[in-house]
Design goal:
By secondary structure, the protein is of the alpha+beta class. Helices cover about 35% and strands about 20% of the residues. The strands form 2 sheets. It has a 3-stranded antiparallel beta sheet with strand order 3-4-5. Strands 1-2 form a two-stranded antiparallel ribbon. The radius of gyration is 16 Å and the shape is globular.
């Protein structure tokens, strides 16, 4: 719990134990799952997750990790759709993709508008 709270503080999001429904480590891995009680807190964290990508050496030492990833919890259909977006991004068919508030958003190029997709045909 302490490690997760410190990681979120690095991302400029103040949380305490009461903000979490559950925090647990997956067996035999370093992966930690944290389920938040309030959706608003989750949105704050998701908006600030870029700050966790480029940690300073002090933050890496403090958290005991070189990389921290924050992902939104998605249903199976949207996880599969994200996998297809990842493949399209690798092939340079789309420029970028991300999720926010349970929606998948993509851009085709640098100056293109962001599109929301909800189906493979989109």
């Amino acid at each position: 719990e302490k490690l997760v709270i410190e990681a979120f503080q690095v991302a400029d999001v103040t949380v305490t134990k009461r903000h979490f429904h559950a925090i647990y480590r997956l067996k035999n891995t370093q992966i930690i799952i944290a389920k938040l009680v309030n959706r608003q807190d989750a949105i704050k964290i998701l908006r600030n997750k870029k700050k966790l990508r480029n940690l300073t050496n002090d933050d890496k030492a403090k958290l005991g990790s070189k990389k921290i990833y924050v992902n939104e919890s998605l249903c199976t259909t949207y996880r599969q759709l994200m996998g297809k977006c990842r493949a399209l991004a690798r092939k340079k068919i789309i420029a970028s993709y991300y999720t926010i508030n349970g929606k998948i958003k993509i851009t085709h190029g640098r100056n293109d508008k962001t599109e929301i997709i909800s189906h493979e045909n989109d």
